[in-house]
Write a structure and sequence with these properties.
This protein has about 140 residues and is an alpha+beta fold. The chain has two domains: about 40 residues; about 100 residues. It contains six helices and three strands, in the order αβααααββα. The chain has a three-stranded antiparallel sheet with strand order 1-3-2. Helix 3 crosses helix 5.
């Protein structure tokens, strides 16, 4: 082969390898970016509701201001989320919380980008609800 042909083939080979490298790097970057925006959802079952159960009323009761404030202060969520005040944390917590009735079972869920925070918030919300139930039973 002539010298010019060898140089041209080497240049084409380098171009192909370089392009392949860029494609692999780009796909890896996109995969990494997709994981950064991933939110973790924790879900718990609270049993079967009684006759006449109202889902919206239960959700309002579960996510009342005083119950949410207690969880926010206990978990130090204003600092963890980098928010300015308690009201912003309340809005964020309500938007990420969900209560559903699936197959005659009551399910409560919470999602967040931080897996541990999502788990701790859901646990604290449900625990606070059960504490309020026990306090109401003692009062009667």
């Amino acid at each position: 082969m002539k010298r010019n042909t060898t140089i041209a083939l080497a240049a084409v080979l380098l171009l192909i390898l370089g392009t392949g490298g860029w494609i692999v790097a780009y796909k890896g970057y996109k995969k990494y970016q997709a994981r950064q925006n991933q939110e973790f959802r924790y879900e718990g079952t609270m049993g079967k509701p009684a006759q006449g159960f109202q889902l919206d009323a239960f959700k309002r009761h579960l996510l009342r201001d005083d119950a949410i404030e207690h969880v926010i202060v206990e978990q130090k969520l204003v600092d963890a989320w980098g928010l300015d005040d308690l009201e912003a944390a309340k809005i964020r917590m309500r938007s990420k919380s969900d209560v559903n009735l699936v197959n005659a079972e009551l399910k409560v869920s919470y999602q967040d980008k931080n897996k541990q925070i999502a788990h701790d918030i859901l646990k604290a919300i449900v625990q606070r609800y059960y504490e309020q139930l026990q306090a109401a039973e003692k009062d009667q």
